[in-house]
Amino acid sequence: MSDEELVLDIPEIDEQHQTFHEMMSKIGQLVPDMYKPMDDDQVDDVVDALYDLREFALLHFRTEEDYMSEVDYPELEQQKSEHERFLTDLTRMEAELMNGSAIPAIKVYNFLNDWYRDHVRNLDKPFGEFYSKN
């Protein structure tokens, strides 16, 4: 997927998407071998990064939903549901890591990357098109 496919042409949201992507990518930089279970220090670092990402996601989702409300976007409830599902899954992953589950960093990274690309391509991009017409 090209970067252009991730652009909505709504500057505030596009900037937040870029920040979200950078925060997500940080996970890959924290763990040298993403295919092995993480040691305790790596788990702590990844959990901290996931916490920061979750906090930013709350702000970002609120921003998106405000833009959607502004133009009476018909798929707003679906977006809210997907945002909530992501936050639930992310919180669950944080808890598993904190409770000692031997989750390789690649699983965390793939979850974040797959969700992000799928969500932007299939839900946010159509909103961007709707927003530009209203």
TrEMBL record:
The UniProt keywords, alphabetically, are: Iron, Metal-binding
- Presence of the UniProt keyword Amino-acid biosynthesis in the record: no
**What SUPFAM superfamilies is this protein classified in?**
Hemerythrin-like
The record's annotation in CDD domains points to: Hemerythrin
Q: What's this protein's name? A: Hemerythrin-like metal-binding protein
Which parts of the sequence belong to the Hemerythrin-like domain?
10-122
Q: Name one Pfam family in it.
A: Hemerythrin
Family recorded in the similarity comment? Belongs to the hemerythrin family.
Q: Which InterPro entries match?
A: Hemerythrin, Hemerythrin-like, Hemerythrin-like_sf, Hemerythrin_metal-bd
GO terms (molecular function) for this protein are: metal ion binding
